[in-house]
Amino acid sequence: MDNHTPALRPDVRAPGPAYDPASLDLYAPGPAAVELAAERGPVVWVPDAYGRMVPMPKHLAPLPMALPEPRDLTPLPLVDPIAQRFLGAGLGGGALAAGVGYGIGEIVNAATGFGTGAAMWIALAVLAWRMPARSIASDGRGSTVNIRKAVIKRSHFHG
């Protein structure tokens, strides 16, 4: 039997003490330096590489990020102003051209209609001028023309 194993039977005695625990002097607190908060300096919390907040002395902490200048949030036009001018000029010019073309078409149509109507009246005037005087000045008798038309029907059977 060894010295550290207790005896199983009470009548057999172990040669040495049955249980000798290790000394507790190993666990006794030793003298430690006391650090006062006033001696230490300010501590700030900064995120580490994993996103956790860790304490760090203020003089070792990285500089704070510079604030970006505020953005201009005024609404912008949907179409560029220069493009709006070009578009307006193009639409205005197109409308002007369409209106001028329509007006010219109306003038041509009116001239054509006037020419056709005038030609008809001129033709009627010429016909009236060339008509013999006796047909105009007759007392309603006029000349009689007898038209005969002979219709002869024959049936043929070709067979």
N-to-C order of helices and strands = HEEHH
Return Rg in Å.
64 Å
Shape assignment:
elongated
Number of strands: 2
- Physical arrangement of strands within the biggest beta sheet: 1-2
- Termini separation comes to 155 Å
Low-confidence stretches: none
* Main beta sheet: 2 strands, antiparallel
Strand content bin = 5-15%
Q: Number of DSSP helices?
A: 3
The secondary structure category is: mainly alpha
What is the mean pLDDT?
Answer: 78
Q: Helicity level, as a percent range?
A: 25-40%
Structure explained in plain terms:
With 159 residues, the protein is mainly alpha-helical. The chain contains 3 helices and 2 strands. It has helices at residues 37-40, 81-130, 133-137, and strands spanning 43-47, 53-57. It has a two-stranded antiparallel sheet. Strand 1 and strand 2 (53-57) form a beta hairpin. The termini are far apart. The model has no long low-confidence stretch (mean pLDDT 78).
